[in-house]
Design a protein that fits this description.
Layout (H helix, E strand, L loop, with lengths): L22 H17 L6 H8 L3 H7 L3 H26 L3 H18 L1 H9 L1 H4 L5 H24 L9 H17 L7 H17 L3
Helix pairs in contact: 1-2, 1-4, 4-5, 4-6, 4-8, 5-6, 5-8, 5-9, 5-10, 9-10
């Protein structure tokens, strides 16, 4: 009988790494945001984030050298989305004072929708700038949306050169206060209560004399 030829077994393919080509970085950010939302910023550690995702320390540290770098990346992601939300609100409301009011509502809404990002963005900003110099640029870019809006309004309404050095922080602090009360639960569990205060606040800002 002819000798049977045995098939040479094919080499096994290595399992595809689902975090390949940059996906791991995004997954780390998502897990960090989830942990902050559940347990707070202080509870976040790089090791636990890596363990939850099932990745090695080596892979983990390729993206973030420490907890500060991870938090800085969370803040940068937040500021970039935040800036776009403010710009969209300003433009879609037709700019002017209506645009400013829409930006205020969008500000609080962002905080309510993204409390983990918001806490890192405004609670740890100065501490994290050394971990990622780009964080300053992203934070300033978001604040500049408010400055540009106020400058536009003042330029239209007054012949005097606009000075927003005090006005911009005042508007920011006013809306930021509503946002923090909302995400800290100080206004109760009903989101509608926070949004009502948000609308009341921005209506006062819209009609005030600058």
């Amino acid at each position: 009988m002819p000798e049977l030829h045995r098939r040479t077994p094919r080499p096994r393919r290595k399992p595809t790494n689902r975090y390949h080509h940059g996906d791991l970085r995004h997954a780390l950010l998502q897990e960090a945001v989830r942990t902050i939302g559940a347990d707070g910023v202080e509870a976040l550690t790089l090791r636990e984030v890596g363990e939850h995702l099932g990745v090695s320390r080596t892979a983990l540290y390729r993206h973030f050298r420490n907890k500060g770098a991870l938090l800085a990346a969370v803040a940068r992601e937040g500021f970039q989305r935040f800036r776009q939300d403010l710009l969209t609100a300003w433009t879609e409301a037709g700019e002017g004072r209506d645009g400013l009011a829409a930006m205020g509502v969008a500000y609080v809404r962002f905080a309510l929708d993204n409390p983990s990002h918001y806490r890192v963005m405004f609670g740890r900003f100065r501490d994290l700038c050394g971990d990622d110099p780009g964080l300053i640029a992203d934070g300033n870019a978001a604040f500049d949306v408010l400055v540009a809006a106020l400058t536009s309004i003042l330029t239209t309404e007054s012949k005097e050169p606009p000075d927003v050095t005090v006005l911009a922080p005042f508007v920011w602090a006013t809306v930021h206060g509503v946002a923090m009360l909302g995400i800290d639960g100080q206004l109760g569990p009903d989101r509608a209560t926070v949004e009502a205060l948000s609308r009341f606040t921005v209506d006062r800002l819209r009609t005030m004399r600058f």
